[in-house]
Amino acid sequence: MTESQKRPRRAPGPDERRLDAERSRRLLLDAALDEFSAKGFAGARVQDIADRAGLNKQLINYYFGGKEGLYREIGRRWEEREAEFNDPAVPLDELLVRYLRHAFDDPRGTRLNAWSGLTEDTDDFPPEMREDLSDMERRKAAGELADDLDPAAVMLVMMGVVAAPIVMPLAVRRVFGMDPRSPEFRDHYAEQLRRMIRHLAPTPTPEENG
């Protein structure tokens, strides 16, 4: 027996176990987002998620309580990520471009939202999950939106224009004649959205122009 075989196996310390658990959770969440965005919640299989992550599928139950728990955790993590760039202090056109850039950089969340919108029952939508319009209403009061514009309608339009290049890439090619993945299209589209959003502000009257 060699010296290494005689030596007892060292048990991992608390920090090592924590890091291993964090890595496993991260791999499973990333794999789940891949599967959900490609197949929707109903079409994604736990075994496929585990295989993509290179882990035992039992860990999904252990860490998240099943596929539903994975789905909820993805939503929670998106809210954390959104809070990092959804700054009420930035102008509305810049805020929209920030969402657009995030969608371009990682389109999986946008695709997942498209799946959800097409397959989930809207009658089961809980009222407490209604979109918070307080920031949009504040922006309207501050003069970023014209008085005759509904903040809810503006927000829905903003969601749509961010999602459009991701969920309708063929339409981008037909309308713009450009590759939706190209830097040229991304820059052009972002600049056009900035201009559109600026046009939503009230038009100064001749008296206000001096």
From TrEMBL:
UniProtKB keywords: DNA-binding, Transcription, Transcription regulation
DNA-binding positions: 45-64
**SUPFAM superfamilies xref list:** Homeodomain-like (SSF46689), Tetracyclin repressor-like, C-terminal domain (SSF48498)
Which parts of this chain are annotated as the region Disordered? 1-20
Database matches in InterPro entries: Homeodomain-like_sf, HTH-type_TetR-like_transc_reg, HTH_TetR, Tet_transcr_reg_TetR-rel_C_sf
Q: Note the PROSITE patterns from the entry.
A: HTH_TETR_2
* Superkingdom to which the source organism belongs: Bacteria
Q: Where is the HTH tetR-type domain?
A: 22-82
Q: Name one Pfam family in it.
A: TetR_N
Q: Which Gene3D superfamilies match?
A: Tetracycline Repressor, domain 2
Q: What is this protein called?
A: TetR/AcrR family transcriptional regulator
